[in-house]
Amino acid sequence: MTFDFAIVLKFQHALLLGLWTTLKLTLICILLGCILGFLVALARTSKNAILRGPSSVYVEFFRGTPVLVQLFWIFFCLPLVLGVELSNMASGVIALTLYMGAISSETFRASLKSVGREQLDACVALGLSPWARTANVVLPQAVLRAAPTLLSNCISLFKESALVSAVGMADLMFVGQNISNNTARPIEVLTAVALIYFVIAFPLTRAVTVIEQRILKRLAV
Amino acid sequence: MSDTAPLVKIEGLHKSYGGVVKVLQGLDIEMKAGDRVVVIGPSGGGKSTLLRVLMGLEQIDRGSVGFGGKPYICANGNGKTTIDAKVRRSIGMVFQHYTLFPHLDVIGNLILAPMKVRGEKKAEAEARAMALLTRFGLAQKAKAYPAQLSGGQKQRVAIARALMLDPKLMLFDEVTSALDPELVAEVEQVILQLAQQQMPMVIVTHDMWFAKNIASRVIFCAGGVVVEDGPPEQVLGSPKEERTREFIERVFHIKH
Fold first, then answer.
1. Closest in B101, B113, B147 to A220, CB measured
2. ipTM value for the complex
3. Are A43 and A111 in contact (CB under 8 A)?
4. CATH of the structural domain B8-255, one choice from 1.10.287.380, 3.30.70.270, 3.40.50.300, 1.10.3720.10
5. Contacts of A120 in chain B (CB under 8 A)
6. Is the pLDDT assigned to residue A214 strictly greater than 90?
7. Which of B10, B9, B14, B11 has its CA nearest to residue B59?
8. Cβ–Cβ under 8 Å, residues A21 and A172
9. CB–CB of A126 and B112 under 8 A?
10. pLDDT computed for residue B121 by the predictor
11. By C-alpha distance, which of A153, A159, A161 is closest to A208?
12. What integer pLDDT is reported at residue B63 of this predicted model?
């Protein structure tokens, strides 16, 4: 058996287009998912049971089901329920945003909790208003503490995004699969696809470790 | 404020957690502006809770606290506590575990409240902060983060942070308990310095040497009530009450 990795270069344009779709989808869902996740974290930690109930159901449901099932449900069932057509991109964005919202909300919730009661006592003793307390003490510490885990969540999302190929979105995985089927060169093409994912994800996973050490050093009081 | 009116007037103070754990059971304490009160007593006797109530951090069940002749904290009888936030701002507190803001450097810790609470200009607040830090021997640490400081330095920064708001009363809650023994003196020195400037203060401490040196008055608190209240020579030296004597003997025994 001989390998011909040059074949990958022949399809580099198509692969790069696929990668662009993957990155676009991932970045949109990171942005929307983090906003959703932060709001849900606030809802889950609130004293209001009406906010707490539904947000908890949402998070637990999305954490407790496979992403592929969520994606299929949104792709095939949601249009029937809503009675509207959804493009591949739209259903991909909805599904992965909901997934990212669920996992990042847990990250935010843990970091909000980690700002101890003593910090709040100190704020009261210094006469800070509830607004100044949240904006200048709780939020900066929560975001700092959440940063490493949040970055891990983003890397997970980047990798999980390959699932959208299963509903026919032309992302990196989808393009790679097509090329490998058409050329009957799965080893070369799929290895190349794996390497592309790795080249992007690996520096980010290293960054998590570095950021974690720096932040822990700063916040260790 | 007239000269005769007490600075702090605590009347019939009751405080429990969940109505079950009764921590304070009817405290009456009057404090004059010149007083430096040290509160001693066994753990769980309500010392720290008393300070937290005075700082306005706790709800109370019954009773009231007046400050400078004005009502400050009042139990409404329906489980709610009214706390006058404006009065509260004239009281400063330092905690056992420093509670510095870890995401801000030393100077950032000092100027946050003056800027947010009093609307002071940054440059102005920074100048005052530097003056305080210099006085406490911490000028070269202005740009350091709390995690880079020793326990003693952190606690001195915490004291400076509270002083930035020009408090009329300072509360110290076991501020040297978390420190390594060799760092205790530098923090106590700073508090003694404040005492020389006639800063009214309430101190909860287990350090009897410190209590003897700083107190103008010692209160022995146990079981949520004041057991004995008097000058340090009396309460620490020759207590009248049996419970005080037992406590003092035990503490000094451990010390030796």
1. B147
2. 0.90
3. no
4. 3.40.50.300
5. none
6. no
7. B14
8. yes
9. yes
10. 97
11. A153
12. 94
The answer to whether the CB atoms of B85 and A132 lie below 8 A apart is: no
Nearest CA in chain B to A136: B112
The Cα–Cα gap between B54 and B204 comes to: 12
3-state helix, strand, coil in chain B (%, to 5): 40, 25, 35
- Res B1: pLDDT: 47
Which of A121, A141, A213 has the most B C-beta neighbours within 10 Å, making it the best mutation to test the interface with B? A121
Look up residue B1 and give its two tokens. Answer: 């404020």
Encoding tokens for residue B251? Answer: 């503490």
In degrees to the nearest 10, what's the CA dihedral of B94, B98, B103, B105?
Answer: 80
Chain B CB within 8 Å of residue A207 CB: no
Domain boundaries, given as residue ranges, for chain B: 8-255
- Using CA atoms, how far residue B75 sits from B8, B64, B84, in Å, is 16, 6, 12
Q: Which of A127, A137, A218 sits opposite B145 (nearest CB)?
A: A218
Query: What is the DSSP pairing of strand B62-67 with strand B70-75?
Result: antiparallel
Q: Chain B: nearest CA to A128, how far in angstroms? A: 6
How many Å apart are CA A17 and CA A176, to the nearest integer?
11
Q: Is the predicted pLDDT of residue A25 greater than 70, yes or no?
A: yes
Please say whether the beta carbons of A208 and A152 come within 8 A: yes
Looking at residue A10, what DSSP letter applies?
Answer: H
Tokens of A57: 């159901």
DSSP-assigned letter for residue B168 = S
Q: Which of B56, B146, B162 sits opposite A221 (nearest CB)?
A: B146
Determine whether the interchain pair A125/B89 forms a contact, defined as Cβ–Cβ distance below 8 Å.
Answer: no
The single-letter DSSP state of residue A66 is: -
From A19's Cα to the closest Cα of chain B, the distance in A is 37
Q: What is the mean pLDDT of chain B?
A: 92
Residue B253: the pLDDT is 67
Q: What angle do CA B99, A144, B109 make, to 5 degrees?
A: 35
Does residue B88 sit at the A interface (CB-CB below 8 Å)? yes
Sorted by where each begins, the domain ranges of chain A are 6-219
Which residues of chain B are within 8 Å of residue A124 when distances are taken between CB atoms?
55-57, 88
CA distance A141 to chain B (A): 6
pLDDT (0 to 100) of residue B79: 77
pLDDT value, residue B3: 56
Predicted structure pTM score: 0.80
The CATH class given to the A6-219 domain equals mainly alpha
Q: How far is B158 from chain A (nearest CA, A)?
A: 10
Instruction: Report the residue from A119, A127, A144 with minimal CB separation from B99.
Output: A119
Contact B147 A219 (CB under 8 A): yes
Sites in chain B below the pLDDT cut of 70: 1-4, 253-256
Tell me whether residues A126 and B113 touch, CB distance under 8 A: yes
